[in-house]
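Many introductory courses stop at the sequence. We go one step further.
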Amino acid sequence: MNLQHKNILLGISGGIASYKACELVRRLRDAGAEVRVVMTDNATRFITPLTLQALSGHPVRVSLWDENHEAAMGHIELARWADAILIAPASADVMARLAAGMADDLLTTLCLASEAPMLLAPAMNRIMWAHPATQANAQTLHQRGASILGPAAGSQACGETGEGRMLEAVDLVKQLADVLACRVDKRSASTLHGKRVVITAGATREAIDPVRFISNRSSGRMGYAVAEAARDAGAEVVLISGVTHLPTPPGIRRIDVETALQMRTAVLQAMPCDIFIATAAVADYRPADPATQKIKKHADTLSIELIKNPDILSEVAALERRPFSVGFAAETEHLLEHARDKLQRKNLDLIAANRVGEGLAFDQLDNALSVLWADGQIELAHTDKSTLARQLIQIITERLESHA
């Protein structure tokens, strides 16, 4: 987490999670950043400016009407000084005001006056976070280029449990470093600049009854690594995610689904795109008639009729405005034969094949891939999934250029 010589403006809005700003300032400085703090008036009710001043080494700004600073247009100076603006915690109120374009205090004014990347770490009651107004505000801010970091799920100060906890300081610093590194990468190596990439990742779940489902061992790590690699190559990335515990990579639009049918709908709604990469482990079958109540254990055996799920990848590859289509093949035997058959049968441009089984690929941090196309093949040696993802994106870029 390298933030050497980076100027980070930390905005703190009102909420019990404000106390976490102390550790956040310390970790930002440990990563090499210069930190200046701006607090809303409500934030000062939870933690004192003096505390943050001692930790950051700079006076803390609270009011837009500070005559000593504003005589020289101090808010504009701060807005130009910042390499990034991180608001943590970001309350429902401050998100609403930012989404509405309001500038009624120092923090919101700074955000409107700055061209620096803005990152928000929401922290609020689970019902406030789930409210349609808050979700709409988060989506508006994301569409304008802000990164929404979290929130995490867990116990809350109000005694309830659910999504709404602010991410921990170490996670926020890492994601901030990733966003800033991504901006550098896009300027220096935008191999997919201007391309729109849709990626599926993770496992789907097919309900048997309200408490049971059919699924698989996919963790989503490979798909998330591919999404990050495509982002770093300059692409606009839409990540359609099945069930996973992985956090959303900064700078990527994530759409959560659970079932294969939901994934199909989300993928088709995300079309058209330039590249479609199907890394998700989509269930081939689903129960024909899921029970509406929990199935009780009575008989010694139980039969469940399964019906075939739609083939999302084949459907996308057959579209009239067809994207460059990339599939994944997870096989326990005859890897290359099954992968080559899938490549041809589904009319794909490229397929990445890997062996699965005990201790292989699924839910692992590393992997190896055989990458095949119509008249070629390359082996990617066993390594971590982030490295593999970058290698795969490079191959996709080269094959895409050869199609042009």
